[in-house]
Amino acid sequence: MLRRAMMRTDKKFPKYHQRLTSVGRKFHGTRFEDDPHFDMNNHLLMSRLPEPAGKRELDDSMGRFIAQDWNLTRPLWEMVILENYHDEDGGECAMVSRGHHTLADGQGFVLSQLYMTSYYEELTKAMNNGARTLHAARRGTLLPSKVHPILRPLDPYTDPLNVLIAPLVQIFLASLFWLTYAFSLPVSFFFSVYQALLQITMFILTCRRVEMLTAPQYGRRVHEREFSSSKVVDMNDIRLCQQAFSGLYPGSVVEKEKGRRDKVRHVTLNDVMCSVMADVLAEEVISKPQDTSISGRVRKMLAKYLPSPIGFFIPISIRNPGDWSLRNLSTGSMVYLYPMSPDTSIGPGTLYDHIHRCRSALSLLKHSLFPRILFYIMQVTGQVPTLWPVPFGLLDSSKNLVRKWVLVPLIEWSLRSFPVVLTNVPGPAKNTITLEGIEVMCWMALPSQSGTGTIGVGIISYAGGLCISVAADKVPASEGVTRRICERFERRFDCYVRCAKEVIEHRD
């Protein structure tokens, strides 16, 4: 059944039967070509978990699965059905899939996975509607009320039969779109410069004293990985937090007299989740055994005088509406979030300030142009590998001392300058979906990790709920860190919900 579903997906996304070629060439990048020896059976596997084949065994299997090396002579994806998995929610098997980042970015890979489920019709409709809406907005043919509710009185004048006024309305709407776009560019550039200066400052102040979530690794990086996922939290509870902490003060979002939302200082799902994760990761760092080495004592001393936020690397998709292509259309940026002090009692006021501090940092990230600009610069220069990142690729690797002793250590150090890669993947939000008639009860996604000691955290919404998944290096001295983070997430989120209910009930 899975093979039949993947055959449909393979027709839509040819990269599923293509392999990388031209690896290591100096004057053009790698390419994808059809694999003449492609066999679907090499990528669809069956396996069994050790008994009792529950969540703990599934987590262990996931850790081994994501730690496997890739066979670069084949298409870079694979799926495994764990046929004997079962849990208390009624799950009867588990399916695990992974794709290499050269195959696609996270959003593109998730789109291709959703395409083989019952969600593909709704997904196709949503993708096409998004593309049509953007195209209509650029041409001025979008219904005025969909541009902004204040323009609703112009709706009757857009009738094509009204040959005198309809063209004028279209010209007005197209001009409005492009004038707004032209005005937003300098505003975005201003905030981009501000964000870049802030990032550079925080990078300089924190890069040499980053507190990882795992124990220190001396020598080569461990090959093993560990994985865990949280329980599903209700999306209604997240909306409750948004309602309680949006607006000018806690509880101000609901205007009972007017019966509408106040959109001033609106808190998004990402704002709430990132605030929770900042607290969770800070709590895990504090619980680690004290580092009594010289470097550990120096970091502890500097933390008293220098800011100590948690650095999150957040991938950013630049995929246009309606783009189904399996390409790596993602960039990313750092954002530094301050957790609540562990000594601070959680109250409506303190939690409101904390969430909005994270909201401000994330808002700067969303409006920054530099991640997108950097993406296109890398796209152009990356087509000639010898020029990227610096022109030292003409020499053989054995003789290239600059690459060996300067470039590679610098890249590895930069990949260790933050502790976590965090991504949010929206999924089918309302109802469960099916794969060849089989209900998908739970679904989760996970980003790749970065350098030594970093963790990857995936946040995904599905069927009215949301969960997180975490992967980390399996270091003996900190083993179990992924499970502890997931448990801390569940407890911390419950605290947010209790506080939000207190705000709403008090307002009522």
Explain what you see:
There is one protein chain. Strands 6, 7, 10, 11, 12, 15 and 16 form a seven-stranded mixed beta sheet that branches. Strands 3-4-5 form a three-stranded mixed beta sheet, with helices on one face. Strands 1-2 form a two-stranded antiparallel ribbon. A hairpin with a 2-residue loop joins strand 15 (455-462) and strand 16. It folds into three domains: 2-103, Chloramphenicol Acetyltransferase (2-Layer Sandwich); 137-188, no CATH class; 210-368 and 402-507, Nonribosomal peptide synthetase, condensation domain (Chloramphenicol Acetyltransferase). With 508 residues, the chain is α+β, with helices and mostly antiparallel strands. The chain contains 13 helices and 16 strands.
Residue share in helix = 40-55%
Largest sheet: 7 strands, mixed
Query: What is the CATH topology classification name of the largest domain?
Result: Chloramphenicol Acetyltransferase
Uncertain regions spanning at least 5 consecutive residues: none
The total number of structural domains is 3
Number of strands: 16
CATH architecture assignment name of the largest domain:
2-Layer Sandwich
Q: What percent of residues are in strands?
A: 15-25%
CATH class of the largest domain: Alpha Beta
What structural category do the secondary elements indicate? alpha+beta
Radius of gyration (Å): 25 Å
Count of DSSP H/I helices: 13
How would you spell out the order of helices and strands? HEEEHEEHHHHEEHEEHHEEHHHEEEEEH
Distance between the termini: 52 Å
Average pLDDT, to the nearest integer?
A: 87
> What is the overall silhouette?
globular
